[in-house]
Amino acid sequence: MTKQISFNAFEMNCIAHQSPGLWRHPKDRSTEYKALEYWTDLAKILEKGCFDGVFIADVLGIYDVYHHSAEHALKGAVQVPVNDPLQIVPAMAAVTQHLGFGLTTSISFEHPYPFARRISTLDHLTRGRLGWNIVTSYLDSGSKNLGQKGQVNHDNRYDIADEYLEVLYKLWEGSWQNDAVLRDKVNGIFADPAKVHAIAHEGKYFSVPGIHLCEPSPQRTPVLYQAGASPRGQKFASQNAECVFIAAPSKIAAKKVVQSIRQKLKEEGRDPYSVKIYTLLSIVTAETDHEAQQKFKEYQSYGSYDGALTLLSGWSGVDFSQYRPTDQVEYIKTNAIQSLLDAYVNADPERVWTIEEIAHWNSLGGNGPVLVGGAETVADHLQAWIEETDIDGFNLAYILAHQTFIDVVDFIVPELQKRGVYKTEYATGTLREKLFGQGPYLSEQHKGASYRQLNRATYAQAI
C-alpha cells in the first residue's frame, strides 16, 4: 500500500512565479498579489484541501543573466516585481487554524541576530506554524545591491551557513530556559534574569555576545526546510533540515537525488526517514482526461519561451541566449544552483534535452513535471511517484493562481482520500507536531537540540 501523500503549495509574493506568461490568462489572479485578500483566499483554499503548508519562495535580486539584461524579466514579470514574503504570513495565519508557512530567507543578506527575532515573532503570531527554508542565494544582482562585489563561492556560502545556524540554535534553543518566564504579577517579576543567558558567540563570520530578544516561541526553532541538491547542499541538509525540497524532471532523476539525501542522513547519524522529502510538480486536472488535456493545451499557448529561459539562466548561472534552440543541454559548473543542469544531463541517461525542450518544459510549473488528467489518472501518477522515488510528498507549483489549487482541492484531494493515502483532517499542535507526530521542539537527535544542553557557565549571565 502506498504511504501517505503530502502536499505543499509552492508560492511567491510576485506574479506568475513558476509559469512565466500565464499571468495573461483571463482566469489567473496573480496580478492581485499586492492585496491581502489574494493571500487570505489562498490560505482558505489550501486549508480546505489539508495541505501541509504554503511554501513561499523568495529572491533578493533580479534575473539578469539571460542576454546579460533585466529586459525579459521586467517585460514578462519574471519574479519581478517581488514583495517581501514575511508580511503576508500573519494575514494568512489569521484566517486559518492549521496551515503551515514555509518562509524563504537567505543567510547571505541578513545578520542572524535580527533574523532570529523576526522568526520567533512569526512563530508566536502563527502559534507555532512556522517553517524556515534556508537558502544561501544564487543571484549576483542581489549581492551587488547590498554592497558586495558578487556572490561568495557556492561551497563557501554553506560554510557561512553552518555558523549562521550555530548562532540561531544558541539564540533559539539556549538563551532562554524553559522556566525563565514567570509572569509573576504579585512580585513584579516577568522573567528570571538567572535563567536568561547571553550566548557569547565569537566566530569566524559572526559576533553575537547577547541574549535572544524574544521569549521562547511555541517551537523555539521553526521547522527547518532546505532545497540544496548539490553535494555541499545535501551535506548541509543532512545536518540541519527536517524537510527537503527537490526539483527533478523525471522519476529517475528524483530517485537518484532522494537516494543520495537518505544516504547522507545515515552518514550523519540521523534516521534517513526522519526527514520528509517533497518534489516539485504541477497538476492540470478537470472532470475528465480529455478536458484536462484541452485545458493543458490552452495553458501552453500562454507560456513564455523567453520567460522560461530567463528563469533557467538565473537559476543555473548560464546565459541560454548564447545557444541555438536545437543545441543540447550540457553540464556547466557555475556559482548558482549547481544541481539544476545536472538533473537534465546526468541524472537520466535515457533523455537528451535541447534548449528549446527545457524552455517549453519550464514555461509551465517551472523545473518540475506537469501531470495532466482527470482525478483517477493524476492520482495513479502521484502514487507511482511516491512508490518509485521514495519521496514523501509534492511541492505543488501553480500554473493559474488560484485556479490550479482549487482544481487540486476539488478533484485530486477527494480521490486520494478515497484511496486512503491522504489525510482527511489535520493533527493537532504546531507545524512540527502535525508533520512528525512528536513534540513541538527539535528532536533530541537533531544537532540543534544539543544547544539546550550547553553548560550555562559558558554563557555570560544576562543583566
From TrEMBL:
| Alphabetic keyword roster | Flavoprotein, FMN, Monooxygenase, Oxidoreductase
| Chain ranges of the Luciferase-like domain | 23-388
Matching entries from InterPro entries are given as: Diverse_substr_monoxygenases, Luciferase-like_dom, Luciferase-like_sf, NTA_MOA
> Would you say which domain of life the source belongs to?
Bacteria
Alphabetized Pfam families for the sequence: Bac_luciferase (PF00296)
The record's listing under SUPFAM superfamilies reads:
Bacterial luciferase-like
> Which family does this protein fall into?
Belongs to the NtaA/SnaA/DszA monooxygenase family.
Record protein name field: Luciferase-like domain-containing protein
